[in-house]
Amino acid sequence: MTRLFDNGGTNKMTIIERIYKGLVRPRIFAASVNDAEIAHLWGLKQLERLQSSRIASALAERFLVHADPIFETTVFGLKFTNPFGLAAGYDKYCQVYWGGVPLCGWGFTEVGTITMLDQPGNPRPRMLRSLKHRAIYNAMGFNNPGAGQAALTMATNPPVRSGSVVGVSLGKSAKTPITQAAQDYVYSIETLAEEADYLAINVSSPNTVGLRQLQQLDAFNNLLSACMQANVMTAAKNMFTPRPLGIKLSPNETDETIADIVSVCRKHKVAFIIATNTTTNREGCDGWDIPADRGGVSGQPLKERAKEVLVFLRRELKGEIPLIGVGGVASGDDLYERITLGADLVQALTAWPFEGPDFVKRALKRLAFLLRRDGFHHVSEAVGTAL
Ligand SMILES: Cc1cc2nc3c(=O)[nH]c(=O)nc-3n(C[C@H](O)[C@H](O)[C@H](O)COP(=O)(O)O)c2cc1C
Q1: Domain for residue 387, yes or no?
Q2: pLDDT digits (tens, 9 = 90+) for 108-144
Q3: What is the CATH number of the domain that holds 230?
């Protein structure tokens, strides 16, 4: 029976994949052609159903989770059962990080992006999808419940699977002027640090006016200084250890700017760098009717640039700061490639709705196969070996 649900690390289709791609996906995609958020909300609903049903949870645990000691890894002081996490932007309201996401096999979840103030984001439609390009366009604008509500939700919903790590992505509220950005992030750190396993400072979303200016040298230095201090002070005041705090980069910066960012990250001893957020570039999007001047693209059109930025960072840092690779990862082969290019951990988002519920299991089984084929005993041994 297990074999029906398991391709043993090959690229053969599983039963779950056949049903999803043949029956479920065509219907959901057809119903959300002009607004992919309909499909996104449907997916969230299914995950909420899954986590609230004991039987469904037990079935998911059996058929969607792939545990293997080869994946167990410690990065920036946290233990991960596997290195493949769900990227920020899926669980913006902290609805499914505790059950639905880990029950689909993800090793960690990054909730948010959360801002100091709750906000509705941009008007819909603000999410579009292209099956042909294997891509999502989004101009969500940080719709989220605000730091206070997110902290309450997280405090009352610890993850059901032990060992599943939950990071919180932090951004700036739309109403806060860019000159006061640091206070906005600091408030969110003070409010959310206790509930988070790690904190990711998002200065790279294209959908909040001026946000990416925070990647400029002086602004970035001041912001990181304030965030690091808030992290240490909050932990000391509440008697817990400071959370690993890292940043998420845009793929649209020049090598010079990225090198400057790296030097500031070194100075402040950030715990990790995530590469990358969505792209404002429209290369690889030919024939897809999306706005040229706003919003970000994820999935396959982003893949090559996300890999370039990762490689640049790995070469600059040589393992000094752990890296999380994200952008266009859609298979176990992609996952393996990202690790060998220098990623200690990998995230994905766009591929999930295209690939279906057993995406993570298939990718991990394939990763385990590739690691063993190439003589690695442990995933951490493969990091950066292609460079
Ligand atoms: C609909 C959508 C919403 C997103 N929202 C956020 C967000 O709130 N914060 C953030 O840091 N990244 C956000 N992202 C970017 C993803 O975390 C990720 O960096 C990007 O999509 C590239 O990965 P992928 O190609 O696997 O999707 C979002 C992406 C999508 C598609």
Answers
A1: no
A2: 999 999 999 999 999 999 999 999 999 999 999 999 9
A3: 3.20.20.70
For the CA of 277, the nearest atom of ligand 1: 19
Question: Using CA positions, which residue lies closest to atom 29 of ligand 1?
Answer: 89
Residue 319: inside a domain: yes
Which atom in ligand 1 lies closest to the alpha carbon of residue 298? 25
* 293: its two tokens: 């001047």
| Model confidence at 163: pLDDT above 90 | no
The pLDDT tens digits of the residues spanning 58-105 come to: 999 999 999 999 999 999 999 999 999 999 999 999 999 999 999 999
2, two tokens? 């297990």
Instruction: Answer whether residue 225 is part of any domain.
Output: yes
Band the pLDDT of 47: cuts 50, 70, 90. very high
Determine whether 331 is an active site residue. no
Mean pLDDT, rounded, for 233-248: 96
267 or 3: which leads in pLDDT: 267
| pTM given for the model | 0.96
Nearest CA among 103, 215, 192 for reference residue 144: 192
For the residues 170-194, what does the mean pLDDT come to? 95
In ligand 1, which atom is closest to the CA atom of 348? 26
Tell me how far apart the alpha carbons of residues 41 and 38 are, in angstroms, rounded to a whole number.
5
Flag whether 75 is in a domain: yes
- Distance, CA of 164 to CA of 167 (rounded, Å): 10
The overall average pLDDT reported for the chain is: 94
Cα dihedral 322, 327, 328, 333, rounded to 10, equals: 0
The CA distance from 362 to 190, in Å, is: 38
Return the H-helix or E-strand segment holding 337. helix 332-340
Residue from 130, 173, 205, 250 carrying the catalytic annotation: 205
User: What does each C-alpha distance from 32 to 28, 151, 288 come to in angstroms?
Assistant: 6, 31, 16
Residue nearest to atom 30 of ligand 1 (CA): 89
Total domains present in the chain: 1
What span, in angstroms and rounded, lies between the C-alpha atoms of 206 and 252? 10
Domain of residue 120 covers: 2-382
